[in-house]
Amino acid sequence: MQERAYSFRFTPTHEDVAALVAYSLEHSPDKRTTLRRLYGYGLLLFLVFAWFAKDHPRWGVHNLPGYAAYLAVTFALGSVLYYAYLTWVRTFLFQRLVGRASYRDLCIPTHLTLTPERIWVETSQGRGGTSWSSIQEIGTDERGLYLLTTPLRGFVVPRSVFTSEAALRECAETLRAWHAAARKDTEETHQASG
What we know:
By secondary structure, the chain is of the alpha+beta class. It has two domains: 6-12 and 108-193, PH-domain like, CATH 2.30.29; 26-102. Helices cover 54% and strands 21% of the residues. The strands form two sheets. The protein has a four-stranded antiparallel β-sheet, with helices on one face. It is elongated.
């Protein structure tokens, strides 16, 4: 495990902050529940359409092949439209979230220093630090490195800061080791005091 500090200077863009929000939502423990609920609403909407069409003179239940064709076409078209709706809503929400003042404040020149003991951040708004135990998750994807403190909040280090994909992976592995050590120390402290 590397014991040196990482120091990054960058200015996150709106796309970087949107990537942080997207990563947070994609890896949220509530994601499956939310998706199941949304798909359930879609199925319910389809069943409502099927119910109202059952008495239609041309393709109601009395004309079984016509009713089956109507249901198939409605289901296929509804699925495509519903998927587009879910995709559009997600994109729209990311843009709205990033457009909020609280997220716009993240798009300023930032100096992030990561040590085995703490995370230090310095911006034009001030300087502060947080412990590794306050980090909920450390994640990476093709857009960058994410240190999530709460759902939809955290630190994003853009991919462009790293010299290569291997450097990004190495940094993430080191940070995960520091994070695990801090969590272990916190748990031991709680057990000793409790």
